[in-house]
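Database export, one record per block. Field names are fixed; values are copied verbatim from the stored entry.
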Amino acid sequence: MILTGPELAQTLEQAEATHLSRQVAACRRLRGYQQSRVIAICGGVAAVTDPVFGRKLNHVTGLGMGAAVNADELAQLESIYAAQGLETQIDVCPHTDGSTLAVLSERGYSVNAFSNTYVRQLRPMEAYAQAHGESGIEIITDRALVEATFVGNSVAGFSVQAVNRPAVLLETLAQIALQRSDTFLFAATIDGKVAATAGMSLIETASGLLAHLYIASTLPAYRGRGIQLALLRARLTAARDAGCRLAGVTARPANTSARNTERAGFSLAYTKSTFIKTR
């Protein structure tokens, strides 16, 4: 188990900020929305893209990591989001600078959601994958094979969720994963049919190379059969082979993704609070 302190939190938040920045850059290339950009703010980054993508590609992460939070800078950012017809949503790590909560409170923010950041240390000789022959699961890592149907399968997997997301967002997120050169793509098949897909990006941090696991979805007909756990383990193997020291993943508390993450040996590093301006 890894004990989470300020140094590890800084690494994980740096990776999250880099991941979000790369998402925005790829989104701009794909969609051509000229106002898409990343704004550096008080140790973190703010993603600004087409409003149709909602908070997924329009939020702040890393605020107050290694830097004090400035109320004037935050006010300017709020104006930028408001001009887009968007709320200012800020994911805050508990290891943030002491000024963060005071400034957010002064400016009328309150918490409306939480997300868990998980981490796992990777060791050169450790085995992560398990044989899936009995369950009929086969993991495909050949990018040429996976990318041919990745977008359609990813959208189909995410289309049935507790919280529905616009189809244009799901398609764009899958296309972003295809476009990013730092991302490995994976698919899981059962009896030769694609049942689930997932991605993993490699991000250089101050603590070494980190594998950021993301965009994992399972088609509704195949849920509850251990497929995402198999994909998690396959990605850990690929991360280890790529020279990663750490792997990180974000999940909502108590959902299926969080449970699978813990089954794959990840430890909860910390829970982030999402702050939204309410007044």
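Remark 1: The mean pLDDT is 93.
Remark 2: Residues 6-114+273-277 form one domain.
End of record.
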